[in-house]
Amino acid sequence: MALLEIAGLEAEVEGKPILRGIDLAVPLGEVHAIMGPNGSGKSTLAYVLAGREGLRVTAGTVRFEGQDLLAMEPEARAAAGLFLAFQYPVELPGVGNANFLRTALNAVRRARSEPEVDALRFLKEARSALKRLSMADEMLRRNVNVGFSGGEKKRNEVFQMALLKPRLAILDETDSGLDIDALKIVAAGVNALRGPGFSALVITHYQRLLDHIVPDRVHVLTEGRIVRSGGPELAVSLEESGYAGLAAEAAAA
Amino acid sequence: MSAALKETEQGFSARYRGLAARLPGAAEARRRAAALFGARGLPDTREEAWRFTSLRALAGTVFSRVEEPSEATLRLLARAPESDAPLIVFADGRMRADLSRLPRESEAEGGPRGGPGGERGVRVTSFAAEPSFERVGEGEPLVALNTMLAEDGANITVPADVDGGTLVLLHLGSGEAGQPPAFHPRHRVRLAAGARLALFEIALGEGAYLHNPLMEARLAEGAWLLHLRLLEESPDAFHLGSLHVALGARSRYEGFALVRGARLARSEVHAAIEGEGAQFFLNAAQMLGGEQLADITTVVRHEAPGASSRQTIRNVLTGRAHGVFQGRIEVARVAQKTDGYQMNQALLLSEGAQVSSKPELEIFADDVKCSHGATVGALDADQLFYLRSRGVPEKEARAMLVRAFLGGMLDAVPHEWGRSVLEGAVDSWWKGRPA
After folding, report:
1. Contact B45/B178 with Cβ under 8 angstroms?
2. Cβ B391–A79 below 8 Å, yes or no?
């Protein structure tokens, strides 16, 4: 049984169908990439998996470790080990990053019947994670994402991921707006988690992130359907031929 | 004016007539107040200053008077936040020296002299022992009511250049719905030149009653009053309170009020800036649910140049609660270089909640900076989802965002113990409240 199993998933936003029947399985320990042009439904898929309101699932099922993911509240999905790195991380004025992270960590630990971490141990863990991500301790004292540059916001997502240690990370265009150095840091953060107990769904428009996070499988999403799946070489050929050819190919099929 | 409200007013007037011979202090002031109240009665919503806040809920109730505080009231003492600071306890409107920890130089009728803690020269006496009236209630119906019926209160004096430390003024009240009691304590605060005091006023209650306190404060040159207030009256109680503060040159009034309610709470703050370069700061938060109404009405009169006033009110409203802020800034011709600011912000957590804002600026000087603003919003769905996606349960996520909305205001309270009590009150607001 795969960690994540999506079958026949259809979803609409404001009455408009966006996902039109997605079948996808991500086995434990594997990193899968989802590539596709703008408007293909990549972010919608990420939000459906994380449980955002305003998206209506009209058909299909999603199982996460065998559980019915779509029936779970967003916080229960997080507790079960799902993490979404947002394409546009949200600013929380008045909420300190340290307080936010410790609240999140302890909420997740409570839900997993693990003991909560005290402020001291939290700080120790947070500082060592920051160090691994080449981020300054000062990050902890700032309000969540407030006044962060685009790159800092994305790194803050990866920092949260490092602390929450998910079973499945969904990275929604985490590479957008990053310079090459930041991209490498983000990729290193993801790669550090890779192992037999960790899976990831890396959503991206471009191939360059996949040079640094080498996926086990690549899926191409166009118009709400997965039209092609393959190994990492598929990302490379896409970069050369573009999505247009693929879409035509899919339409002909 | 409804007949039922008339009945309530007549109840107060009859109470005055019955008590007049025994009330402490200048009989003439009482008579004038009674005449003012008799002529004008309780305000109604046709008056501009009361257009959002109707006292209809008081109609038909004839409030009673209590001689001795009830057991229920005394039990509330256990709910008061703990501290070692000097403490003045009022139970059902009467000062209880035996339950208080008065500063050493204090005297209160019937109580022991002094106590631990306040050896810094703060003097506390009771209004019953040293009555005085600075104002009787001309054009101020709540003040007239208080002047007519006040029987007790705290007189707090800090001598020149003395740091009076922290003083807690606790009011406990309770009553039964059938014939709820009314309390009209009258407090006076005098800070001499250069004196300082951190006064933390806390009102707790249970059941039905009316709390109609008046505080007259006077800050001499360079004095500094930090005035924290936590209003946690019973959800069935009425709170009709007024603060009148006069600011001397370069003095500073710094107020923070957290209103968690009463069924109906009206908190008036009247500041008279009489001395050059004085500073008046008021931050207030109203957290209301159910059918609660809370109204903060301020009048800041700049009568001297170079002074500043800043008022920020934040409302967190759920259920069918109604938050009101009316803020009036008057700048006299002489008050050049005045810097006045007021802001009313509301977070509406339900469809039925509402907020009313009414800023009024009346400026006669030509070189001033005065501004006002208001914002209304709901909790941000994206922020809520972001927190939940990190595992924070919905109710906790909402509480975090509300806390963030009030956060800056709480962080600015320059008193560690006071801040922690207020933070605790903000956080516990959620207990037992449906998300």
Report:
1. no
2. yes
